[in-house]
Amino acid sequence: KITFVSVLNACADDVNLSEGIQMHERVKRSGVELDVIVGSSLIHMYGKCGRIEHAQEIFDKMHSKDVICWTTMITACSSCKSLERARLLFDKMPQRNVVSWNAMLAAYAQQGLLKEVLKFFEKMPERDIVSWNVIVAAYTQHGLIVEAHKVFNKMPKRDVVSWNAVISGYAQQGKLDEALAVFQQMPCPNVVSWTTMLAACAQQGQVDMAVKLFHQMPDRNVVSWNTMISIYVKAGQFKEALDLFQQMPERDVVSWNAMIAAYVQNGQLKEALQLFKQMPRRDVVSWTAMVAAYAEHGELEEAFHLFSQMPNPNVVSWTALVAAYAQNGQLIRAMQLFQQMPRRNVVSWNAMITGYAQQGQLKQAYKLFQEMPQRN
RNA sequence: CACUGAUUCAUUAACGUA
Fold first, then answer.
1. DSSP H helical segments within A250-360, as ranges?
2. Of A222, A275, A226, nearest to A249 (Cα)?
3. Cα dihedral: A236, A237, A242, A245 (round 10)
4. Would you report the helix, strand and coil content of chain A in percent, each value rounded to 5?
5. Residue A150 pLDDT grade (very low, low, confident, very high; cuts 50, 70, 90)
6. pTM for the whole thing?
7. pLDDT one-digit tens code per residue, A322-365
8. Rounded distance between C-alpha atoms, residue A129 and residue A132, angstroms
9. d(Cα A351, Cα A367) in Å, to the nearest integer?
10. Which of A41, A143, A283, A314 is the least crowded, having the fewest Cβ atoms under 10 Å away?
C-alpha cells in the first residue's frame, strides 16, 4: 500500500495520467483500491489529471471515508472546475477541519471569485496561515497587489509561502523593483522564492539579471531550469536555451514544451515536430503548441490534422485552431469550429472578432462583440 | 535518522496590446 501511494503521488505531482492509470490497474489487482489511503491517493491523482469522473467513481465506491478523503475529493472537483460539486461535498461531509475549510476557500479562489473568497473566509470557524495565504494569493490574482500586501502585513503569522505570494504579485504586475525589495527583506527564501524572482525578470525582459540570479541561487529544481530556458526563449536566445535544456539534470514535460516553443520561435518547425515526436510524453500543451505553430505558418491542413489526433483538446487547443482559420481569412470554417467547440472563453470570442475585423467584416465583428458573454 | 493520503506560492500552449 505504501508503495502504491508513493507512486500515485508521484504520478499526481507529474500530472502523468497514463502512469497513473497503469498504477491504478495494479492497485485493483492487489485488491486495495478502496483502502481509505490508497483510494484517496487515486482520487488525488485523477483530480490532478482532470479526470473527475474517475475520481468520483472511486470516491463513491469507498466504504469508510475520513476527513482527508473528503477534502481530497473537494480539491479534485475544484481543480476540474466543478465548484458546485465541491461545495455540495463540503456541505455534505460529516466532519470538517481547518484543511477542509481551506480547501473550499481555495476552490473559490481558483475560480477567481474574490468576493466569495472573502465572504467564506469571514465565516470560517478557524483560520491558519494557509487560509491567510489563500487570501493574499486571491488578491494578487486579481492584480490587487496593494490589498494583498495589506493582508500580508496584518496576518498573524507569515511563512515562506506568504512572502512568495507577495513577490509573485509584484512580479505579475511587472514591478520588478518592488518584488526584489520584498525578496531581499524575507528571512528564508527558498527555491520557489528564487524562481519567482526569475519569473519577475522574465516579465520585464531582464535577461542579465535573471542569469545572475540563476547562478546565485543556492539550489535549483526543474522549475527553475524551465523558467530560465523560457527567459532565453523569450529573449530570442535560442542557443542558450538549448544549452540549458541539454545541461539540466532532469527534464519534465514542461521542459520539452518550452523547447518546442523555442524551435517554433526560431522558425524551425521541422525540428519542433521532431522534438514533439521524440519527447517521452506529450500533454495538451505540447499538442496545442504544435497546432499553433502550424497555424502561424499558414499550414492549416497540418494544424487540423494534428488537432484531430489530439487526445483531449481543451478550450485553449480549440481556440488555437479557430484562430488559425480566422487569421487566414477562412472565417466560415472558423465559425463552424467556434460553434462546435464545447466551451468558449473570452479569448475564443476575441479570436473570432479579430478574424472578422481583419477581413473588414465589421458588422460581423461588432455583432459578436455584442453577443459575447464577457469582455476584457 | 528516515518509509503512505488532503488545503496556500514559482516555469511551458490560444486572441489582442499604438
1. 253-265, 269-278, 284-296, 300-309, 315-327, 331-340, 346-358
2. A222
3. -90
4. 75, 0, 25
5. very high
6. 0.93
7. 999 999 999 999 999 999 999 999 999 999 999 999 999 999 99
8. 5
9. 14
10. A143
Neighbours of A304 (CB within 10 A): 18
User: DSSP per residue over A122-141, as a string?
Assistant: HH-S---HHHHHHHHHHHHH
A124 touches strand B (CB under 7 A): no
Q: Which nucleotide is nearest to A317 (CA to C1')?
A: B14
Residue A3 (CA) to nucleotide B3 (C1'), in angstroms, measures 9
Q: How far, in Å, is the CA of A352 from the C1' of nucleotide B15?
A: 8
Q: Which amino acid is at A144?
A: L
Name the grid cell of A115. 468576493
What is the spatial distance, in angstroms and rounded to an integer, between the CA atom of A264 and the C1' atom of B9? 30
Protein footprint on strand B: which nucleotides are under 7 Å from a CB?
Answer: 3-16
